[in-house]
Design a protein that fits this description.
2 copies of one chain form a homodimer. The first copy, chain A, folds into 2 domains: 11-67, Arc Repressor Mutant, subunit A; 69-212, Tetracycline Repressor, domain 2, CATH 1.10.357.10. Chain A is mainly alpha-helical. The first copy, chain A, has 10 helices and no strands. Chain A has helices at 2-7, 14-41, 48-55, 59-66, 69-89, 97-114, 116-123, 134-156, 165-184, 191-204. The interface between A and B is large, with 56 and 55 residues.
Amino acid sequence: MAGNATTGTAAPSAFELAQRQGDEAIRTTLLDAASRLLAAEGPQALALRRIAAEVGCSTTVLYRMFGGKAGLTEALYIEGFQRFRRCLAAVPHDPDPRVHLRELGLAYRDNALAERNYYGLMFGEPVPGFQPGEKALLTALSAYTILEDAVAACAAAGLLTDADPRHVAVSFWASVHGFVSLELNGHLPDADAILDTLMLGISSGFFVTPRK
Amino acid sequence: MAGNATTGTAAPSAFELAQRQGDEAIRTTLLDAASRLLAAEGPQALALRRIAAEVGCSTTVLYRMFGGKAGLTEALYIEGFQRFRRCLAAVPHDPDPRVHLRELGLAYRDNALAERNYYGLMFGEPVPGFQPGEKALLTALSAYTILEDAVAACAAAGLLTDADPRHVAVSFWASVHGFVSLELNGHLPDADAILDTLMLGISSGFFVTPRK
């Protein structure tokens, strides 16, 4: 009661809640169709008329929800990073921060494979000239921060080498990103074994101390 | 003399040589224009009419040289990997194979930055549905083999951990590829420091042995 009284808004009615659920379902359907078209056919397929035809609605629905093509692209970017953040945030905190970091690496890959249509938009540049806005950048940052915090926890536990933990976090991201990009583009037939080697190499290095 | 006598072909005349030089220059100009358009505007810009207009020639020149759009895409792919291979092959062989591998990583990045318009085509999937042909795949392989040989040299010198050298080579490639992709897409403001950390991490690992 107090919350509604101070803000002056009434609690949403059952009808309003149902409407919101419907809007959310429509929104997700539109975004998934748009990301699928973008991944399959490139940016020229990201036309409101094309997406409307794919989903079976009028372009008015798309204009009302996203304002236009730029708003739709921004919404795709945000949706991709929100799913990514939820996936990383769902990784349980192992007492050993190295194990946690490794689990985050595996979750990163799982999300990229599950959401491959979003992945290229998030980290590539599939829509020439598109610049994400402030909300999109903050969403991306909130996902990345989970990786950075995991590396910082390794540093706090005295487990890291002398390197700057922020640089280690980016390096870890770059390595996993490279692996995922190559896997998504079909360049890694033996992907599971590669990921094992990569994760082991990241933690312990690929080289031994040379024999004297 | 012997070579020409046995094959039955005459040595090319000065005129023919000049013609070939001209063809090669035209070819490079067309490929560079096409790769620039592809990187800047996406696959819909990869139209023969558009490229011809950009360079100031007729589409007949493009049809004669590449046979059509598929042949042009294939030629772009081959050109990118040939430049890449030349760049890796030019790295001097340091007596320490770890140093050689590191230098290859740096050359990989230099080539990607210098040839950024080709890079996405080589390792991404910017032209939906394009499948490189046999010659293109062999050219790509001949570049990759240089990295693989460098890792095998580390293994032969007893410098590698127990991991399969072929998996280490792919992991090394994935890490550098991820770094380069993120740098090309503007995600790494502090790229030089990241690359230092990444290279150090790849060789020695990011983690120390935990304190007891």
